Amino acid sequence: MQDVLNAWSAILTGPKPHALSADFSVLFAKMQADRMAKRTAENCRHHELLTEEQAAHQKRTKQEFMDAYQAFYGARSPR
Predict the structure, then answer these.
(1) Which positions of the chain have pLDDT values less than 70?
(2) Which of 11, 24, 56, 68 gives 20 to 30 Å between its CA and that of 3?
(3) pTM (2 decimals)?
(4) What pLDDT score does 1 carry?
């Protein structure tokens, strides 16, 4: 997750800021969804209010982010 945030920051605040690619935008959106689901689940756990649906949603968004992360960075790594 930190890799994505660092890349986002570098793209937008670097010496030559440019628009995010469509692939990166998808990855960033999935990361944001994962962060929000994690935060919601942690808050609910803290207050002992976590439902099975919320736990499943957190697990699903985490897997979607991880899949997008591997697809994005895996396609760019040297073989």
Answers:
(1) 77-79
(2) 56
(3) 0.81
(4) 83
At residue 77, the pLDDT reads 66
Size of the chain, expressed as the number of residues it contains: 79
**Quick one: pLDDT at residue 10?**
87
Distances (CA, A) of 31 to 10, 34, 50, 51, 54: 17, 5, 21, 22, 17
What does residue 62 show for φ and ψ, rounded to 5 degrees? -65, -45
Position 73, amino acid: Y
* Burial letters 19-39, b for 16+ CB under 10 A, else e: eeeeebeebbebbebbeebee
Q: Supply 38's token pair.
A: 């994690």
> Could you tell me the two tokens for 47?
């207050």
